[in-house]
Amino acid sequence: MKLFHIVLIVTMVLSLAGCNRSSQKQQQRLHLFAWSEYVPQEVIDGFTKQTGIPVDYEVYDSNEKMLTKLLSSPAHYDLIQPSEYMVEHLIKRGLLEPIDQSAIPNVSNLLPEYRNPEYDPGMKYSVPYMAGTVGIVFNSDKIKDPIRGYQDVFQPKYAGRIIALDDNREIVSWALDAKGIDINDVTPANLTKVKPLLADWLKLVKIFNSDDPKPQLFSGDVDLGVVYCGDAAKLIEQDKKFKYVLPAEGAHRFIDNLCIPKDAPDKQAAEAFINYILRPEVSKIISDKFPYTNPNGAARKLLTPQQLANPASYPPESVHLEIFHDIGKANADISQLMTELRNGR
Ligand code: SPD
Q1: What pTM was estimated for this model as a whole?
Q2: Whole domain around residue 208: which residue ranges?
């Protein structure tokens, strides 16, 4: 073979390899599976503009639905957004990839109290996205009697005027709190104790909605309910007649995280996204659109005094808040009980 031919073949091989690399780059795509009403489209578009990586964005409205879909779609999602107890569960089952902290320098923007969570010491598998509480929202133009806790909400006089999260673990925890039982002590005996109370409460609820209860509260379709703090904060921002109360019987907080599922096709894209949303100016966009408790200290500095004074977004530090833990198989007991009660409504 002549030298000319050898040079030609080598050039062709090299250019084919180059082509392949650039088409791999073009094929990069982030599969994001996250809570509904939580990741602004502006943030997703900003990430694509910055990195050239398109995002497929799918949403869910409960940790349990996310888990079911995750298990039925192996090696599909690059990034999920589980709450603390679900992170604990996924770690135990070996369903998460460790996160390469060196790819996420912006983690230094997180407040110190979020950097070593009990459910994932050292943030090996998770990075906090937003935190918050579950509490009571009510329209003070319509509800004149005091609302201090769950027992004040779930009263027969409010039948057909109540909205509640469509989340079995959440609902059961309210009844446990109302009975003075630890929200993580989900035993068959304790479920039996709360069953009659739950049966009474469920009959009073007009709408179950975890995605977005704001339109129904605004329109007056319902007047009170138990919701995520970010939705209550948004209602308060728009009209001060809406009030947010942390239930007197016991309230809990959550921390939602970004995690990379085992065998994610594009771990690098996932880490790039995590680092991107931790930029202060990007994190501020998330707070502007979805005013939960922002764990990003650098972003909090960019928020207005009004945003930081919103009682639904930033509750007083003195309030004692519980946190959910992984309850393993008891989750199935909750699901069975709630299906039975909801079918009998
Ligand atoms: N619309 C976003 C809601 C996020 C709520 N995540 C917390 C779940 C706690 N069980």
Answers
A1: 0.92
A2: 132-253+315-342
